[in-house]
């Protein structure tokens, strides 16, 4: 769950990070163990003072196409970060938790070469963000004070962070599906989730959930731009997550998202197009996001058992 709106937050902070329509999606995960006949009620569990740590890797590859020659500019960017999530309090009325999420470390590379991110940018990213989340995973509110400003007009990073894929209210059995929609400010996304199975080995109910995404891109960018940029296209994606329903915590998640879109540049009335700027550009990108839970108490990269 958390990966989706964190990825959305990073996309808002780094608007050139986009995703490709025609890439092959990851195959759905097949789990043979079945849950109890009555079904499983999937819920996060919150304990005041508890901290959970995660490592996230985001890989972005693709091509920017300009002109009629078909010549492309390749892109290959990797961002890796470790973050911690601490439960500050739990609301008795509905179990909603006030949580502080903070990035511990962040590294970025492009085409295999490390990028020295500005210290001010790193410091901004490491400021805690406070969210209020229901046990279903639905985000009720986000404290936007520490969020980076979006470079795209009409996209509010706090709204992007609230776009989470929540669990259904009722119990679900293996094979059950639930659907929903998200609006990321110009990107309307439909998602479908299904319970692939529950593994009960080791005394913990670990649910595997498959997910697919599809959406239309339709946004206009004017902020910090000498021209108006209109973006239109399609988004597709899919992946899976492992959720420990006994502990009420995400164990791991992978998601591949693909985007293919057209950007058209229009100068203000009576103004000339900036030198070197083409009338339009096409972008075909793929973004792969993986997340795994780490040891909650000791900084490092040791996966939690």
What would you say about this model in short?
The protein is mainly β.
Task: Walk me through what this model shows.
The chain is mainly beta and 305 residues long. The protein has a single domain (2-291), classed as Lipovitellin-phosvitin complex, beta-sheet shell regions, CATH 2.30.230. The protein has three helices and twelve strands, in the order αββββαββαββββββ. It has helices spanning 2-13, 119-125, 157-161, and strands spanning 51-66, 72-90, 97-110, 113-114, 129-133, 139-142, 177-183, 187-199, 206-221, 228-244, 249-266, 280-293. Strands 1, 2, 3, 4, 5, 6, 7, 8, 9, 10, 11 and 12 form a twelve-stranded antiparallel β-sheet that branches. The radius of gyration is 20 Å and the shape is globular. The two termini are 20 Å apart. The model is unreliable at 1-36 and 300-305 (pLDDT under 50).
């Amino acid at each position: 769950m958390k990966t989706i709106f964190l990825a959305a937050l990073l996309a808002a902070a780094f608007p050139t990070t986009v995703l490709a329509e025609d890439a092959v999606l990851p195959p759905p995960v097949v789990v043979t163990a079945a849950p109890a006949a009555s079904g499983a009620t999937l819920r996060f569990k919150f304990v005041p003072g508890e901290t959970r740590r995660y490592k996230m890797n985001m890989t972005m590859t693709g091509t920017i196409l300009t002109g009629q020659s078909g010549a492309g500019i390749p892109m290959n960017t990797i961002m890796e970060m470790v973050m911690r999530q601490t439960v500050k309090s739990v609301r008795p009325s509905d179990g909603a938790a006030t949580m502080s999420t903070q990035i511990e470390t962040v590294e970025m590379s492009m085409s295999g070469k490390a990028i020295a991110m500005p210290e001010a940018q790193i410091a901004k990213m490491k400021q805690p963000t406070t969210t209020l989340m229901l046990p279903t995973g639905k985000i009720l509110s986000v404290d936007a004070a520490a969020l980076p400003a979006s470079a795209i007009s009409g996209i509010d990073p706090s709204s992007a962070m609230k776009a989470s894929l929540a669990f259904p209210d009722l119990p679900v059995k293996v094979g059950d599906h639930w659907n929903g929609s998200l609006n990321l400010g110009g990107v309307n996304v439909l998602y479908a989730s299904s319970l692939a199975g529950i593994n009960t080995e080791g005394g913990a109910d670990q649910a595997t959930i498959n997910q697919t995404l599809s959406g239309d891109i339709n946004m206009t960018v004017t902020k910090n731009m000498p021209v108006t940029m209109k973006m239109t296209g399609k988004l597709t994606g899919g992946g899976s997550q492992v959720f420990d329903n006994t502990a009420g915590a995400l164990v791991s998640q992978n998601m591949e998202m693909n985007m293919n879109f057209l950007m058209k540049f229009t100068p203000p009335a009576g103004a000339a197009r900036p030198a070197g700027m083409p009338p339009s550009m096409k972008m075909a990108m793929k973004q792969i996001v993986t997340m795994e839970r780490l040891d909650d108490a000791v900084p490092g990269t040791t996966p939690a058992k």
